[in-house]
Amino acid sequence: MVKFSNLIDFFDKYDTKFLDEWYHNIQLDSNDIYKDEIKENGLLMYQLVQKTLANSISINELKELAHKVAKERVEANQNIGDFVYNVNYGRSLIINQAFSAEITRNELQLAIERINVTFDHFCYFVVRKYTLLKEQQIEEKNLLINQSHKDKLSLLGQMSSSFVHEFRNPLTAVIGFVKLLKTDNPTLKYIDIIERELDQLKFRITQFLHTSKNEGAQEKRKEILTVHLLLEDIIKFLYPSIVDIDVNVSTNYAKDAFIIANENEIKQVFLNILMNSIDAINKKEKPREITVETILDKQNVLINITNNGPLIPDDTREVIFEPFYTTKELGTGIGLFVCRKIIEKHNGIISCISNEEKTTFSIQLPVLRKETPHLTK
Questions:
Q1: Which of 147, 153, 293, 306 has the most CB atoms within 10 Å of its CB?
Q2: What predicted TM-score, i.e. pTM, was given to this entire model?
Q3: Do 376 and 370 form a contact (C-beta atoms < 8 A)?
């Protein structure tokens, strides 16, 4: 076995020269908090190369130094690419230095092979540990951000619930008296408009209440619902808005699509998406079109609500169901978030696809099977 004693002695003589040349030519950030450690790490690596040539190195020694360097690179928040450059620059200097030693050609070839293997292992251990530490760091930050986000949502839910409950009590009284006025004076001018706007306000208040965790305790029992009848009710409710901007609404229903759901909540989802569709095509040139269809299979019913409004960009679609994200000037950013919560609570899926010609919101809900024996509260 080749011992490389002449080469090891040669390296002993030139360690200071090597380190100085290496240190003055590497990529080094002046803000690196571990810049004073880098030269020491270079010396340790230089010594490990000598141990490699002397067959006295252990893999644990190499890993220990690699993990130390990886930890420092993460804590210094430095680019791993700079480390790779610096290590390979040191490798090149050592190999060039080996060419100047008085050893045989065979010894030189074997020495270079060992040096390369040592550097390859060292780089692998550093980059692997660096990646693991970075992933752990990112995960911890994401957990912190998510927890902070949840805390803010919870606080906002409590605040909005408190305020909106205060608004809803007098609103209920106003709606009741308007209905009495309409009964006593059916031809009273503007009474239909007032009633519709109050219903819209009640809908918005309900949206806010759905962001409160306590609201779920007050939800009504689920029941058997016919999907196309729910959609027809919402379209009739929105008829004034549809006529106002001259929208052509076409429907294609699977008439025997039944679901088990909370009626008010599912209606809220359909209402929100249809209102958004009307808003999307409001400023579009005619024809303005909305298509509502239901597709039934053995497991699910798919509700597609499509409009020929403007394209929703991919980056917007990725966050469109997140809370407080809105593209509307006066939007709250909770409408689609509440829709997603409701659909997921009903074991369904809501999604959106969009191109230059049309935008489709798809809602998939479990269909009521014939063998379902009964309903539970």
A1: 306
A2: 0.47
A3: no
